[in-house]
Write a structure and sequence with these properties.
Strand content: 15-25%
Number of strands: 16
Strand order of the largest sheet: 3-2-1-4-5-7-6
Helix content: 40-55%
Mean pLDDT: 91
Radius of gyration: 24 Å
Structural class: alpha/beta
Distance between the termini: 42 Å
Largest sheet: 7 strands, mixed
Shape: globular
Low-confidence stretches: 1-13, 515-519
């Protein structure tokens, strides 16, 4: 293995996932709910950006100036390609943390994000990151960090170690990492099939392997087969970040702020008796058997008064991102799927049904007859976000400024949809974030950009691309062989797209219009 990768997987590039928690604007609501001030995000940095999709989507959809690094050169090259296509203010490097974090030409940052990589890098790199945060994060700035944590990984950690040991001892380097991953998983499953004591004491491991078998090998390579793989207790993370003057603020997962979805009354009563904040978070991790944390940390957090918190909440804007649901809303927490609803939820959906952005202050005025408190409104908004119904929305001036770069990036990504692309996220200047868009919907958007507005014409447009690539649609796992069958299935999809999906995309200012630079 070459020296430059320091034991990190580079044989397989990271996946093209999008992570909304890396959007600084998404921190405003949870920080306000936690009673903490949120800075204005002028500059942001992502350390270990992978393919750079999240960084570029957030740069193109906002006015925030982004910087970042990923030491895998092929990934950095793709990220730079996206940045050039959008023309957004994104300066991206292919440097190791030790090199990037000591650059003299970087600005100070309001937001620094690390998604997942903390668990996969060496202590030396962690020290470089902490020193970088100490020097370059502005006072009041926010750090987002996600990492594998304990006790949730306690049961499976021995199997990860065994699979790595098997690969070291038995893996043939010439076979390639995907095949070696399959071999290591097969070996571990064979061991469990022999009914070892470890398996009897940890019966959930077998179910975990069933999930693993269906997961993308790109993801598995980075999740399980890095040389450094260190799940970390919350208290240990707090110790690591203390030299950077960071204090824990709150979880970035909106669902974590809704205790009813995660904690029984007995759990809540127990936590209420724990006075120390760090110990309380650790106990909560044991209650939830937490295996992955996504947290906000703040350098010098300022506690808001109740009046200031109400002011911060009422300035936050939201928009409905899906058609109004006909069935009961559900969200998932540690206790499983729960139904959310009631008069406040129904009234909010009524107000947002036209897919226009509104501030919480405007909603509070419209709903004042319901006699609710600001915390109730904030929790209801978080519930709607968790149910996939709403998203944060930017100010109108920011939306106008971001529209051009967002359009350029989307045009570039949709051109890639003409071939088989793994990218299923487009940029919205309204939300300042990425929005899920399937490959087929991207093709339909391209057709709409050419003036197509009937299901049949959408189908013909998409089929002209698919058939030229030798692709076919499938039904119940079997390919549709005839052109007529494929056109029929595409027409059904096109009708749903025009009726349900396109109006939402138009509200989010995601269009298929081709820009001059992307033509």
């Amino acid at each position: 293995m070459s020296d430059w990768n320091e034991g990190y997987v580079t044989e397989i590039d990271y996946n093209f996932g999008y992570y909304s928690m890396l959007n600084p604007a998404f921190a405003r609501l949870p920080l306000a709910m936690a009673g903490l001030a949120c800075p204005r995000f002028r500059t942001a940095c992502e350390l270990g950006f992978g393919q750079g999709l999240s960084t570029n989507l957030h740069a193109a959809a906002s006015v925030t100036q982004w910087f970042g690094t990923d030491f895998n050169p092929s990934q950095a090259a793709f990220a730079q390609e996206l940045a050039a296509a959008s023309g957004a203010r994104a300066t991206l490097y292919d440097e190791a943390f030790a090199d990037f974090c000591t650059r003299a030409d970087l600005p100070d940052f309001d937001f620094i994000g690390l998604h997942g990589i903390w668990s996969w890098v060496s202590d030396e790199n962690r020290a470089s990151i902490v020193n970088f945060i100490r020097r370059k994060l502005r006072v009041g700035g926010v750090v987002y960090v996600s990492y594998n944590t304990l006790p949730g990984w306690s049961a499976f950690a021995p199997m990860q170690h065994l699979m790595m040991q098997y690969d070291d001892a038995m893996g043939a380097q010439g076979r390639g990492l995907p095949s070696r991953i399959d071999d290591a998983i097969s070996f571990a499953q064979k061991l469990l099939g022999a009914n070892p004591g470890y398996g009897r004491l940890n019966p959930q491991i077998g179910e975990r392997f069933k999930t693993i078998m269906g997961q993308n090998r790109q993801y598995l390579a980075h999740e399980y087969f890095n040389r450094t793989w260190d799940p970390m207790y919350f208290a240990t993370m707090a110790e690591w970040l203390a030299p950077a003057k960071l204090r824990y603020a709150c979880s970035s997962k909106y669902a974590d702020h809704l205790d009813e979805a995660n904690l029984t009354p007995e759990h809540r009563a127990f936590l209420a008796e724990v006075p120390d904040a760090t110990l309380r978070e650790s106990v909560r991790d044991f209650i939830m058997n937490q295996s992955f944390r996504t947290d906000y940390w703040v350098k010098g957090p300022r506690v808001l008064t109740e009046v200031e918190r109400a002011d911060a909440l009422q300035d936050i804007r939201i928009i409905m991102t899906r058609p109004r649901p006909q069935d009961a809303l559900k969200m998932r927490g540690a206790l499983g799927d729960i139904t959310i609803g009631g008069p406040l939820y129904a009234a909010l959906l009524d107000q947002l049904a036209d897919h226009k952005p509104r501030s919480l202050g405007e909603l509070a005025v419209a709903l004042k007859g319901l006699n609710f408190k600001w915390r109730m409104l904030g929790e209801a908004i978080m519930g709607l976000v968790c149910a996939g119904q709403v998203s944060m929305a930017q100010d109108e001036e920011v939306i106008k400024q971001a529209r051009g770069t967002s359009d350029k990036l989307n045009a570039y990504l949709m051109r890639k949809a003409r071939s088989q692309t793994p990218i299923t996220t487009l940029s919205s200047p309204v939300t300042g974030s990425g929005v899920h868009c399937s490959r087929m919907d991207q093709l339909f958007l391209l057709a709409v950009g050419d003036g197509v507005r009937t299901p049949e014409a959408l189908a013909r447009f998409a089929w002209s691309i698919l058939s030229a690539n030798g692709e076919r649609l499938t039904r119940e796992g079997a390919p549709l062989e005839t052109a007529e069958a494929n056109l029929g299935a595409l027409t059904v999809q096109g009708e749903k797209f025009l009726k349900e999906t396109l109006p939402t995309f138009e509200a989010l200012q995601i269009s298929g219009h081709r820009t001059v630079d992307a033509a």
